[in-house]
Write the structure tokens for this entry.
Amino acid sequence: MSKNIKKIGVMTSGGDAPGMNAAIRSVVRTCAYYNIECVGIYRGFEGIMEGDFRPMDARSVKGIVNKGGTVLKSARSKEFRTPEGRKIAHDQLKNAQVDALVVIGGDGTFNGGLVFNKEFDFPVIGIPCTIDNDIFGTTHTIGFDTALNTVVDCIDKIRDTASSHNRLFFVEVMGRDVGHIALNAGVGAGAEEILIPEENLGLDRLLESLHRSKRSGKSSSIVVVAEGDKIGKNVFELKDYVEANMDEYDVRVSVLGHMQRGGSPSCFDRVLASRMGVKAVETLLEGKTNYMVGLLNEKIELTHLREAIKGQSKIDRELLRVSEIMTT
Ligand code: F6P
């Protein structure tokens, strides 16, 4: 066990995700278990630069495992992207005698941590936490599973009204530049078509598919659209286009938006966050730095932060095939 690490700082950064609190709790309690001091850093890299640190003991994280959002707050910092900002951050950490950081977030957060390590040789470990699931080196990011359940729940409700009125609904879901949420929730909710950035369906094929589904006797339809889809039209333009080309459909749009980021984390996300927090602290105590903890083949494994940032998380193409068969 590394004797150099006596105090660990934990922070959340970037878009929040359900399970962030469970990850904070796990880091704090693992520190307590190993008799290491822990400080919570508020508002991510902004909070480091402002020295907004508060000591956290095992009891300080009681009652948060089931809470959405992040008790440490989150922010995206412009100043930390400058060498001057990072120097201020380093001075604050040194003054507070913080020896290492656990950063909870997505690739922007990891990038910040990596640059910081390079400049100051400061130990950093990352925990992947974003609803988008767009991180290489883990099959699941914390928050993804909860977001999927939220989306499926919403689509089930939309289907009720869609089938009552014989309507076609375009449901836009989050995911920034990737289609993990759209693809998985689309299959789970039985969507007729799923539009994702990784697979350009094209407008003609979309119309063809909708005609086919009408002909097969379906009176209503759900099309899930990833926000980053590249079909060339936003979801409202898509509605206009389909209405102009298919008068048999009455079309509506539902943009699910930030509700996908909220809510109580699923059991899967809570367990994942607990496992990742333990591994993050233990990795620092083994004297390692610049790794991300991730779920690979059911085990918590390490991936270098550089790989996690550079590598591309790939969608499960088999799911596309499954979706096609399911909509027969
Ligand atoms: O990265 C998480 C995410 O929710 C994306 O799915 C979405 O594109 C983005 O954040 C929204 O960011 P903001 O909360 O800044 O609008």
About this structure: Residues 27 and 153 are 31 Å apart (CA to CA).
